[in-house]
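Inputs:
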Amino acid sequence: MSIIDIEEEAKTICTRLYYGWVEREEISSLAKDALLYRTVQDRLDWIGLELIDRPECPWYVVRVKREHDSFTQFRKKNQSLKNAHLALILILYAKLLLPKRVGQVNINQILSISFEEIYEKYGHKFARSSKIPTSKKRMEGFLGVLITQGFIIKKRTEKIYFAGPSMYMLHEDLLTDLANSSLETLFGFGDYKDKPIE
Amino acid sequence: MEDAGDTSNLKQDYELAHSDIMKAKEIEKYHDLFRLFMTRDKEKITLCLAAVRTLARETEGIFSREEMDHVLSYLNSETRTYVIKTIVKYGWIVSNGIRYQFPERMRYMMMFLFNVFVGEMDSFSQEISVSLAVSDLDEVAGVDEDTSAQSLQMAFGTLRRIRVEFQSCVEQKSPVEARNLLVKGKDFHETIGKIEDRLNKINRNSYHYTQTTEVRRMLAEIMRLSQELHEFVQQDIQANARSFGQYLTPEQVEEFLHLASLERLAGIVQRNFSSPRKPHFLSSEELYRRGFDYLENKPEKQELTPAPPITEIIERHFEEVNSNGASDMFYTEIMNKLNQCSPVPLHEMVIKNNFGETVFRTGLLTTLRNELEDGDERIFEINLKDSILELREGFLKSITEGDIELFDVSKETKK
């Protein structure tokens, strides 16, 4: 493959990535050709995008670099994402992606979660008030928003959810943040800052 | 201690493979330290302790003599009576005449004896509270100063041991050790607060007070070490995502998800949020063009399709044809009809479904005939008969019958 060919190929791949995510099998040439991979990465780098290529991710996904991305800007355009949705994203992240990333589960295994499990375990968190329990419809509404934003993928016939491409776009620091705050809650990390001993 | 009954029975019981007796045997080497009973007989003390342990384990705090007999049925009946007598005498269990009961202090004592020395405790906070209970016991019992100091030393020894554990872990930097310590030191900070309270209660004039400064120093050091350990764990997780699994099991993560508030969970995601990109379902050419423009840094705008080339349109002169007028068109129509068949019935030519049109055509026909007669060109003739034609359709019910005929030149010449 000559350099001109690579340029052309890279251009098509970049275009496809810019307007969404692409399955790994569809552009298998990217994995084989290191020079092509490098070119694509450079191209995306110029315009402030990052190519996410994680072994557990079945897609090639692109995300805006952290310094150019801002949550407030996104919120302005998409009013649908509320705090409850974000919390639900974290819960699903911990269920669907974290075990793979941490190495507790084999990478090739496909993790899924059923609607019943989400509803029973975490439904009470999303109640409108402490007196009214969360209805199934409300929970489905939350999940529906996440599906349209691409955070999860629903199996067509059953109420079973898989991790979507947007889930892979979340920054890696989420893992350490989650670890820190859970250690804080479970083992009293950071308590000593409040109560110093002479 | 009184007469011990049959020694052979005692021996037999001592050799039993009961779990409590085995446990009691493990702390035989500390008997000198405690002087729990007046006797120095190793076997008797062991059996007493084993019995107390069984009672503490298998009863619910208050029990009758029968229940006691039932629980201690693994001992020989003579030994049993002797053991019960001894532990009642030395205050291990208290009787109110009918029922027996453990004083609270004794429970702590038992926990301390069997847990601190034999096997490890689940958490540091438990260990510390047990140690404190022991020193408390000494104070209440009013033992002499040497013994008191000794047991206090032991209580502080627990703290010292904890400190050493933390130290070695921080030095070794092994995740497994760190994880164990994390689990053990779960409510550590709360317990240290309790110790502080206890230290404040101690009388300033008493012997114990002199040692409080040392304890405080030790506690501060342990706190510092635990802080170091926490920092190490945090750095380790940051450096390597895989080590996350060594510190936190999925169950613990789930527990956190349950405990934490919605806002806190949302905050974590918000800090690491990346705007999702929706896929656009565009044609491949459109995608290529858009992507190319984007990569070339061109402003994105809709490209219009090019206008078709200008072609010359030949103008036609419709006006000339139209200028002939209605009467001319009517004339050609009549002539066409007459050329096909000579006498044409009048109603075929004139009557249409529309009333206005019929009137118009009739008028046209009369004017046309007058005009042609004026110019001496008699081309067609209208023969009218005075009879009435009835029509089934249309607006007109009746009309004068007649027909139009080509003007025959031969007829005129005959006339």
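Residues 57 and 176 of chain A are 20 Å apart (CA to CA). Flag for discussion at group meeting.
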